[in-house]
Amino acid sequence: MSTVSANAAEKRKRYWAPTILFASTGLLALTAVPLYGFEYGYSWQQWLAFLLVTGLCGISISAGNHRLWTHKTYKTHWLMRLLFALFSAATLQNTTLNWCAAHRAHHRYTDNNDLDPHSSARGLWFSHLDWMMREYPSGMKSHDNVRDLQRDKIVMWQHRNYLPIAIAMNLAICLVFGWITGDIIAMFLLAVVLRMVINHHAAFALNSFGHRWGHRKYKSDISARDNPLINIFAFGEGYHNYHHAFPGDFRNGVGWLAYDPSKWLIKVLSWFGITRQLRTATDMQVQKTVQEVKFEHTEQQLKELEAGDQENWRSLLDRERADFCKTMEEWRVLLAERRKIAQDGPAKKWKLAAIQTKIRDLKFRLKMQSRRLRLLVRQSRLNAATASSIGFGK
């Protein structure tokens, strides 16, 4: 019997605190929230407060727990770190220290059923909720991988005082916004209950649905996927395949217009010196991974052909791969030349412009190569279908 099946056969200890939390907030969101709305209604000010608090809590998980503390993709002022610690506690998704420890383990052991805390290979229910509600060996708490965070005073202050901070934050949200909008009950239902359910399941959906449905454009050997629907509610975290390919990038959505509120916040704050040392994957690294995945898909599709046809197309694919390696080497050389250019000097701008022009040419070559790979698959399938029909006719 495998380790996973043996573990499944055992009776698991239930963690009652998260079980009751998820069940009660979910039930209230489905019943009390709409019933109170039908009976008394919610004003636009109350909905605005709900959106504001939902955003603050979601951003604190995404830009705080995830990109700042787990992956250290940037640095920021201690006041920002304090705000992230307070509002991430309000989400009731565990302490920042525990959250980061579990997420680092997930990245290190992705899809390993014995070591990934919420491996998607164990099913949607497990990866969405059950891993937090029962005792599993893969989810046992360990701080061995967050020794650096144990030296962070704000992280440890929140960790030691998590429960009173979480309770105080939710009470403050309820009372302050309730006083401002004139209805404490409405604010409890919207800005505490409904907000918590949305924050919870947007984050949990990344572990479950984000590893089941979507695109794998950057890394094809893991289950993480880019899912645009989840992305709407998860503050840019839905670019999950890109994130697993480049976890050290402060962006999840690469392009400036790609919907990623956490990226926009971090970048805008850097203009005022509040955030700094923003880490990104280079354009060459991104283009390289995308093209490598395209080669993998092309080769896999060509393997479906009969043995004789495979040989006819494999030489073309090998030629394209050699051209790809050549392009990447030329790009690497250009980047090295760009780094060597002196910061001062009359010819600096001209040299940089010339290098950038050559890099654009290399990008165009990769774009045309992608078209050729698609054509290669299409033509090979067409030839195979034609040969099959002729054979059938005989």
TrEMBL record:
Protein keywords: Fatty acid biosynthesis, Fatty acid metabolism, Iron, Lipid biosynthesis, Lipid metabolism, Membrane, Oxidoreductase, Transmembrane, Transmembrane helix
Transmembrane segments: 20-38, 44-65, 161-180, 186-209
Membrane topology of the entry: Multi-pass membrane protein
Alphabetical list of InterPro entries matching this protein: Acyl-CoA_DS, FA_desaturase_dom
Sequence ranges assigned to domain Fatty acid desaturase in this UniProt record: 46-248
Subcellular location per the Swiss-Prot or TrEMBL entry: Membrane
CDD domains, per the entry: Delta9-FADS-like
Keyword Membrane in record: yes
Keyword Cell inner membrane: no
Location, primary (coarse class): membrane
PANTHER family: ACYL-COA DESATURASE, DESATURASE 1, ISOFORM A-RELATED
Family: Belongs to the fatty acid desaturase type 2 family.
Protein's UniProt name: Acyl-CoA desaturase
Organism, as annotated: Microbulbifer echini
Origin organism lineage: Bacteria, Pseudomonadati, Pseudomonadota, Gammaproteobacteria, Cellvibrionales
